[in-house]
Design goal:
The complex is a heterodimer of chains A (364) and B (282). Helix content of chain A is 23%, strand content 34%. Chain A has 364 residues and is an alpha+beta fold. Chain A has a 6-stranded mixed β-sheet, with helices on both faces. In chain A, strands 13-12-11-14-20 form a 5-stranded antiparallel β-sheet. In chain A, strands 15-19-16-17-18 form a 5-stranded antiparallel β-sheet, with no helix packed on it. In chain A, β11 and β12 form a beta hairpin. In chain B, α5 crosses α7 and α8 crosses α9. Chain B is built from 12 helices and 2 strands; from the N terminus they run αααααααααααββα. Classes of the chains: A alpha+beta (364), B mainly alpha (282).
């Protein structure tokens, strides 16, 4: 159990600047997910915490102690790798017990703890097998067993589910979440999958080009994205972005698309915004519904739309239509829309909409 | 299923004549010289060059073996060859593994050092044999086992290093990294994880090194005399002014095959076992 404090971290590989100044505080017992597109530096950051990469600048503290010059073995962390990295020449039992043996633990105690870990993960029957005899999901369990058996201060996960098929991935994701609930140890988890990030994290750290774009609870990032990048990265289907201009004249703020004027929800903070400023309006597909009743509710903007593409998923249907000339996708109840070409009124929830400056792409 | 089964039965029963002919031809191509060598080694001297040839000697004899091993000192050569080749092979595998690991994992010497190692083989050996001979005489390594072991280790290292370099580079790093995080030192991660995984590569490189040492003639001829001479150098005694000793040459050739075959069988078992460790990715 330990907190992690990263200050001014840089990592360069020759001319390539992979991590460009990261400051990050991870609380004891917190589940932190580092997420971002490939090449954003998230794996590098994780590997510097493990001690597998030397850092070029900055400090890493674990449990209040600067560990910059500690070897991986002295940091008391455990890591689960993307390719599981099981030792192919050892049985499952030996794989799980390897770290304990390397730390000179008596044999009887190694056996007890390996047995406990195996029971916890339901792999007792596999202890005598070799990794090549296991399925992907079983290998993943062994890799996790190898990590938990040591009771480390911190767990590091490097895209542990990306080699599994979709169904198994959902299942293992649940197990990792449960594991964290059960043992409540600090976990740092790297993924490029926004669903994993949203479902697992106490806190998401969204990275881009070696820097932190935004960090906070999953809901923070989802509801109040700091930039179009964050808004577009989290959420599926993706947020719709519409180019427009902000009008502040006449008391009420509104956003002008080419032929529409969408009122900004009252009470929204627009400090620093100027009249006529070019903006991007961000609308999440789930914040649009088929209109009911005579008048739109408070904060809703009603618009007639012709559906030109319909993608049913069963419970919901993704309906694409044109809003002021630009394509917009809405996530509607399946029974609210039946076929492409249908004309129906859509209510857009403007109080949930995001507004970004068009030039900087930062939220207003 | 019912439609497929008869077709499969028919296919299994038909005799692949072409394949049998090809394999038969290949077998004769490979085995005939061996048979003829063995045949010659147990023939009385008078039968060597008769027309028509003697296909099966009526009175097989071991005199050529006795002569080759004891009169021409083939046994001493065999023992020397075993000592020198095995020592050089072990050294080459040991040093080669360490060098290759260092090149592959630490990028030691950048991109140039590994190529420099290989470039050592570009020079024709004849270009350095005289200087080596002079140095060896000066420092007392001439006609010693140690001298030839050093020379052979140096000659086999570049290829050993390159074979294992390629092997280590092809191995995922993550298993060694897992070992480091698990609590190993660099050395333990190398010794307990990387080396067992690279075993097939190490064995393959060692087999190549052994064969190179076992069959080496030129340096053995120049750098040894009556003490540390190796098996290949014994053969030159069979061609003299009074004609060739075919029987003795054949007998010694048969003897020299034994360790190679034994090693081949041993290595094959290791290679197969090593390869079945297989990939770990899902």
């Amino acid at each position: 159990m330990a907190e992690v404090k990263i200050t001014g971290l840089h990592k360069r590989y020759g001319a390539f600047h992979a991590v460009r100044g990261i400051d990050l505080d991870i609380r004891d017992g917190e589940f932190t997910v580092l997420v971002g597109p490939s090449g954003c530096g998230k794996s590098t950051l994780l590997r510097t915490i493990a001690g597998l990469e030397e850092i070029s600048e900055g400090t890493i503290e674990i449990g209040g102690e600067v560990v910059n010059d500690f070897r991986p073995r002295d940091r008391d962390v455990a890591m689960v790798f993307q390719d599981y990295a099981l030792y192919p020449h050892m049985t499952v039992a030996k794989n799980i017990g390897f770290g304990l043996k390397a730390r000179k633990m008596p044999k009887a105690e190694v056996e007890t703890r390996v047995g406990e870990a195996a029971r916890m993960l339901g792999i007792t029957a596999l202890l005598g097998r070799f990794p090549r005899q296991l399925s992907g999901g079983q290998r993943q369990r062994v890799a996790i067993g190898r990590a938990i058996v040591r009771s480390p201060r911190i767990f590091l996960f490097d895209e542990p589910l990306s080699n599994l098929d979709a169904q198994l991935r959902d299942e293992m994701r649940g197990e990792i979440k449960r594991l964290h609930q059960d043992i409540a140890t600090t976990m740092i988890y790297v993924t490029h999958d926004q669903i994993e990030a949203m479902t697992l994290a106490d806190r998401i750290v969204l990275m881009r080009d070696g820097v932190i774009e935004q960090q906070g609870t999953p809901l923070d990032l989802f509801e109040r994205p700091a930039s179009t990048f964050v808004a577009g990265f989290l959420g599926s289907p993706r947020m719709n972005f519409l180019a427009g201009t902000l009008t502040l004249s006449g008391g009420a703020a509104a956003i002008r698309l080419s032929d529409l004027l969408l009122p900004v929800a009252p009470g929204r903070n627009l400090d620093g915004a100027t009249d006529g400023q070019a903006v991007l309006l961000g609308l999440r597909p789930e914040h649009m519904t088929r209109a009911r009743g005579e008048k739109p509710a408070e904060g809703m903007f009603r618009q007639e739309a012709t559906i030109d593409l319909l993608q049913p998923t069963g419970s919901r249907s993704y309906a694409t239509f044109r809003l002021s000339g630009a394509p917009v996708m809405a996530e509607l109840q399946a029974h609210d829309v039946s076929r492409p070409g249908e004309r129906l009124p859509i209510d857009i929830n403007m109080s949930r909409a995001s507004i970004f400056d068009a030039a900087s792409e930062r939220a207003l | 299923m019912t439609a497929v089964a008869p077709a499969r039965r028919r296919k299994r029963r038909s005799i692949p004549i072409g394949r049998i002919l090809l394999l038969g031809f290949f077998l004769i191509f490979v085995l005939w010289p061996l048979y003829w060598m063995f045949n010659t080694s147990i023939k009385p001297s008078d039968d060597y060059l008769t027309v028509p040839p003697v296909w099966f000697p009526s009175a097989p004899t071991l005199v050529h073996y006795k002569a080759a091993l004891f009169i021409y000192r083939g046994l001493d050569g065999l023992i020397n060859s075993l000592i020198i080749s095995l020592s050089a092979t072990v050294l080459s595998a040991l040093l080669g593994t360490l060098m290759a690991y260092s090149l592959a994992r630490y990028n030691t010497g950048g991109q140039h050092l590994s190529f420099w190692v290989l470039s050592q083989r570009f020079l024709p050996p004849i270009g350095i044999v005289l200087p080596v001979f002079l140095i060896y005489r000066q420092v007392g390594l001439y006609d010693t086992h140690v001298g030839l072991i050093i020379a052979y280790t140096v000659f086999t290292l570049p290829v050993s290093v390159w074979m294992m370099f390629a092997y280590f580079r092809g191995m995922p790093k993550s298993m060694e990294e897992a070992a480091l995080v698990d609590g190993c030192t660099r050395w333990e991660a190398f010794w307990r994880v990387a080396v067992p995984l690279a075993a097939p590569g190490i064995v393959a490189a060692a087999v190549f090194a052994f064969i190179a040492c076992w069959t080496e003639f030129f340096f053995a001829l120049i750098l040894t005399s009556r003490t540390a001479f190796t098996l290949p150098t014994v053969f030159r005694a069979f061609i003299g002014f009074q004609g060739a000793q075919y029987g003795e040459a054949a007998a010694l050739a048969i003897v020299s095959l034994v360790p190679s075959i034994a090693l081949g069988v041993l290595a094959q078992r290791h290679l197969v076992r090593g390869l079945t460790l297989g990939a770990v990715r899902g």
